[in-house]
Write a structure and sequence with these properties.
alpha+beta, Alpha-D-Glucose-1,6-Bisphosphate, Chain A, domain 4, 3 helices, 7 strands
């Protein structure tokens, strides 16, 4: 197993970050155009879809652990149906630093031991996109 972590500071509070990582209208804006769906309880499925409607799932897995506003852990699968295997575990950790400022860390525990710079870059882009979306919304007049 290989672990990679990227983190940054976002001008938002934990509730705003939580909403952004768990609501499809937000994830579509920063998570590679994918809308998330889940019940956000341990064992619940988690699906990231390219569009609403009868479009095939793009990413899917299961919610492992939830501490609303603080920690979300889920896995992602490779394969389809009975052929699927856990590909990685993703952990979103949200820490309030001061009012209106959070540290958000995204850790990927990857089953594949070999480094994959493209995959690591993708998670970094997702986290950077989250920051951009939340801060643009916060600092836009009338938002």
């Amino acid at each position: 197993m290989r672990t990679s972590t990227c983190s940054l500071y976002i001008a938002a509070d934990p509730a705003q970050v939580w909403r952004a990582i768990t609501e499809p209208a937000y994830t579509r804006r920063f998570y590679l155009g994918l809308a998330v769906e889940s019940w956000w309880t341990p064992g619940a499925p988690i699906v990231y879809r390219a569009d609403a409607g009868p479009v095939p799932d793009v990413l899917h897995g299961d919610v492992v652990h939830v501490e609303e506003g603080r920690l979300l852990v889920h896995n992602l699968y490779t394969g389809i149906g009975g052929e699927q295997e856990v590909h990685c575990w993703l952990s979103w950790e949200i820490t309030a630093v001061q009012p209106g400022l959070c540290r958000v860390a995204l850790r990927c525990d990857d089953v594949d031991r070999d480094p994959d710079p493209d995959r690591d870059e993708t998670w970094s882009r997702v986290l950077s996109g989250l920051k951009s979306v939340l801060e643009a919304e916060r600092f836009t007049p009338g938002a």
